Amino acid sequence: MSVIGVIGAGVMGVGVAQNLASTGHEVVLVDKDEKILADALATIRHNCRLSRLMGGPALDADAVLAKISTGVGADAVAKADIIIENVTENWDIKREVYQALDAACGPDTVFIVNTSAIPITKVASVTKRPTQVIGVHFMNPVPAKPTVELIPGFHTTPETILRTKSLLTAMGKNAVMVKDACGFISNRVLMLTVNEAAYLVHEGVADAASVDEVFRSCFGHPMGPLETADLIGVDTILYSVEVLYEHYSDSKYRPCPLLKQMTDAGLHGRKSGRGFYDYAGSNRATAAIPAQRSVSQSVNH
Predict the structure, then answer these.
(1) Which domains does the chain have, with CATH numbers?
(2) Neighbours of 219 (CB within 10 A)
């Protein structure tokens, strides 16, 4: 059976590892230290127990976790047939990770880049296997979202596309093919929306709850843009907008200062317990944080 290496045990990496293991794949989950990996396994156990309550399939947590081994460093996935990388949307970090993976992995290993913005051809350029590098933009939470964006790079071969499609089908995913353009489909639209919603709070036009209520009540969206920012991660939103701004040199992608300050303050959304909303230890937003207005005002001053 194929072994899949999953790089990064954050929100996306945990979701990818759980999705792979629950569909019968052998997984090696890798991060920089054992504490992060232990927390990731605990999160997967928790998510498996809640799966049915959240509308997903009933999952045996012990059976899912039995499919997942862990390791630190690129050598832990040296024998993997396919790598799915999920590190932060920071080019310097991604480049270092791919150079290490390229040195550690066998010549036939396919590298799947889980990114919401960084061009796949740029990632492939730092490896010696550009024909075997392809992008897949998974949505969060990964096990619950059936559709992904599939992005071949300039040199990606049809064989690599077929291997990736086969894996995605086995994971229960529907792949939408997208040209290798920074931000692809989803984030060219979503990041602009979230960034502008943050500007509304930053400028004192409305608080986060009011912004989101308009999108839920008027447009029928299940979540408003700032609830979505908390789910994805405010820091991830900022990095994605910065990548779009740098890549296109277009002022429409200028990051909202409030996103920068929230990221610096550790208000990263659900994963840190506080973002545009205060989660107070639960998975549900309990209230918009009045302090967000103070953060915004302090930026203005």
Answers:
(1) 3-177 (3.40.50.720), 186-286 (1.10.1040.10)
(2) 8
- Angle among Cα 61, 140, 285 to the nearest 5 degrees reads 90
Q: What is the pTM of this model?
A: 0.82
Write the CB contacts of 159 (distance below 8 Å, at least 6 apart in sequence). none
Name the residues annotated as catalytic: 116, 137, 149, 187
Produce one character per residue of 241-270: b if its CB has 16 or more CB atoms within 10 Å, e if not: bbbbbebeeeeebebbebbbbbbeeebbbb
The pLDDT tens digits of the residues spanning 127-162 come to 999 999 999 999 989 999 999 999 999 999 999 999
Q: Angle formed by the axes of helices 225-232 and 208-219, to 10°?
A: 110
Q: Which residues are annotated as a binding site for NAD(+)?
A: 8-13, 31, 89, 94, 116, 140, 271
